[in-house]
Fold:
Amino acid sequence: MRCRDVEACWDDMRCGQEPRRQDVLAHLRACPDCQAVYAEFEGVAYCLSCLPVVQPPQSLLPRIMEHIREQCEQVRQTVMLATLSSAMGTLHVGYRDRGIVFLRLDRGEGLCGALTALERRLHAPAVPTQEAIPPWIVAAIEAFFAAGRTANAPVDLSDLTDFERAVLSAVAQIPCGEVRSYGWLARTVGKPNAARAVAQALANNPIALLVPCHRVIDCRGRLNRYLYGVEMKRRLLAMEGYREEETSVGVRTS
Structure:
């Protein structure tokens, strides 16, 4: 046998197969190189067997358990990313057990582009999946397109800052068919002088549609500042029953 044949026997043994013991021993008796390797490892094994038994420190178990918890948390934090069709086109949906964390209308970037955008925005690992999308996600999206329902949508904003969560939580409560101004939103979250920061939080909204930032317009009723463009904003508001000529009724600034 050649030395690489001995290595193959070790591979077989690792896989649970019976090694050819007599062939290995015959090779070992005739091969000086393998004899040297065997002697080296035999010496190490002997030295290890002579070491006294040491009890693990009492602090080791909590550290091990903490490591296990960290690994479980990492798995729990992983976002599943799936794709589905909607009345507005293809949607990319990122979700965990706790809720939807990412919803993006495809604009030609595809699943890879959505994956990059998700991880950049949420600073969380994501995994594309071909599994069936959970029924509660499908139901939430269908409810939005059928009746504009968003108030109780199963969204998870835990990856965002406190300010972003406050802004988007307030936005989610704007009734279907109505709009609010940036100033109104800033006052609602207790930051009356932070209209620009509010606008930035809306621009970075990771759960478009279900967190309806399209229902926020300026104090003059203009449909500006929207991720998917003003025309899409107009289309969404029209679908929900809002008409621009109703500005004086639909917009609340105080």
User: Anything to note?
Assistant: Residues 221 and 248 are 8 Å apart (CA to CA). Residues 80-252 form a domain with the Arc Repressor Mutant, subunit A fold (CATH 1.10.10.10). Strands lie at 79-86, 89-96, 99-105, 126-128, 179-181, 216-217, 251-252.
